[in-house]
# Entry
Amino acid sequence: MADVVLDGVEKRFGDVCAVAGIDLAIKDQEFLILVGPSGCGKTTTLRMIAGLEEVTSGDIRIGGRSITHLPPRDRDIAMVFQSYALYPHMNVARNLSFSLRLRRTRKEEIERRVAEVAAILGLTEHLHRKPRQLSGGQRQRVAVGAALCRQAGVLLFDEPLSNLDAKLRVHMRTELKRLHQKVKSTMIYVTHDQVEAMTMGDRIVIMNAGRICQIGTPVEVYDRPATRFVGGFIGSPPMNFFDGEIAGNGREPSVRLAGDLVLPLSRADLGDSPGRRVVLGIRPEHISAAPSGRPLSDLAWAAVGHPARVPVVIEVVEPLGHRAVITARSPAGSFQMETEIHAGLRPHEAVDLWFDMNRAYLFDPETERAI
Amino acid sequence: MNASESPPIAAPASAAGAGRLRLFDREAPLGYALVLPAVLYLLLFIAYPFLMSIGMSFTDAQAGNRRWTFVGPVNYSKVESYEIRANDFVLASGLTESAARTMAREKGDARIVTEPAAAEYRAILDVGGRRIPLLQLPKEDDAAFLGGTIAGDLDWRVDRESGGTYRLVAHASDAPVTVGSFPNRAALERERKEALLIPARTEIRTNGKGVLQDPNFRLALKNTFQYTFGTEAIKLLLGVPCALLLHRRFGGRRLLRGLIVIPWVIPIALSAQGWLWILDSTYSVINWCLVHWGILSPGRIINFRGDKNWAMLSVIAVNVWRGFPFTTIVILAGLTAIPDEILERARLDGANALQRFVHVISPMIRPILLVSLLFSVIFSFTDFNTIWIITKGGPYDQTQVLSTYAYQIGVNAGYLGKGAAISLFMFPLTAVMVFFMLRFLRREA
# Structure
């Protein structure tokens, strides 16, 4: 059993608090993603689990055993580094087996494991090459293989895909996910890329400023962001935010944005707090277009559950292929939406857009928590 | 913008076909002009002296002599005669210890008799009734004289043999017995077979004017290798730990990194003056300290520059002191180039500090280490300053290296041709070293 428990783990560098007391329980054989912007403490957290950073206070346990003060080699962990950290003077086979050779594993056992790992990762015909003779993707696989060879209970990944080109990254994402199903190890994976986080993880831990903002499955953190930060971080293009205040009465609550734009809310639990300051969040994919003067088609109506009309002027159209990202200026401020590429919107055009208020979020402007 | 106006960028390109560009607008002549000083420098100060000294080494050039005549390779090699140098004459073997000792004691009564043998004369040692044939030479006087040397002048020693028996050996402690001289190799070989009648350790000495026949040249060559590789070994032994130390993070690291290069950057002519004082025969601070701490008695102070055993160590010490900062800085650069992640991975893989050094750090700094070694081997091999300032090659040529010997012969003694020949010997030697190091380096990379 290789479940990992972080108990009030804190890391300070002098006066700077990198990780501010996080509690986290990672289940055995789970694929957990630590995601957040740079400097949020996710890599520091990983390095503390690895034993490369001292823990200032708190306790880390793997399989129920406290490892907080153990040296890295006694922790039953293996790690894949961002730069792959391959030994340039060793060929692939020796890179894979280095940790086993240090542990004086039997020769046949080493050969068996290297052959097995090489077969899983498709490295068999490269075993006698040096790292510099390999492509970026192959080096990446060697780095993963070196970690797998250890057969450690916990595998740590520190942004392993960020040095690959976009196409290879998508491919390796799938490969790593497949690998996780094959290898019975707990995997903890650090990334700053929310797409990687969403596509790969069993659960996602979103961190910001040394704290955990939310822990949940990809669907949970997308559908129910706990804070304004999570809402803005997960999803691409990011969620739009508008400052406003609650208006209307208990039965028909609404939110008043800048420019006296009043949008009806589809919730009944806010009526007793008119005048309360809120932040309205809505994702670009939950905004629909209908050209000015023409009614929305039935199909478009069906997509928008609780539509609210917002008059805008189109500023920028960025075609992505099947979709287009449109930046529009409304009385409440500029925002982005995503639409079909053939929606027929052109810059400088004045149109009405429709917010799906069923999918809108409200956040408290002070605590930034979801309301 | 008027469409009929041609864009200014295109103008030179289209004009190039029709007419030539102005000189200063073309790039190639500028390039040659910039390279010219370097080419002139190489021709004047590298190529010309090098070719000149090659030419001079084939002449009888002497200081003060205006006419140089071509003499062929005599400066390199010119054999005039051969000699046999013999030592450790086995007078008797297969003896019991007491028999051998008895014979050794009878040395005082030993006599040499000569008798004619096949148109030559044979010297026979008569000791305790035993007749031991020693030498057979054309002249009776020579046979009697050399026989008398072995019988009387050499030390007789009792040695234990491998079979448990004992033998009696006549040993020359200062100079071996010389037989010769012979005009050519054939005469030498004939005599070597026929002249010595008892087993002895022999070597052939070639006499002549060329550098290859000069025993001092051979000594200088040996000293050069000793000096170079002694220096390099110690430099590495000091440089690696220093670099590892300076690689760690600690307060004052930048200051120390700056200070460590001082020996390397101050001119050797200045720093060697300090060393002259440190190694002074009378006022040496090292001696003062050793005496002061009670390690040495005042009567037995070390003569660093005058004692033949200490002189080489002293010049090596000065060269190490001067050269190890360079080695340290180069290794430090190599260490800095190792990504932190690789060392972290090695820790996770379970390598302790020693294993990290052996399996990860040293293979990774090996290429840059070799480059630094290449440089400093060449610098040490051709080093003149350090030795000239500290010992001038002395005492008794014990620190004479090729560069100082070439200077002694070529400039001080005025035999320009021979001096040139000595200094040119360094060229193929360094070329071979460079060749092997570069090949090793290429295989590493």
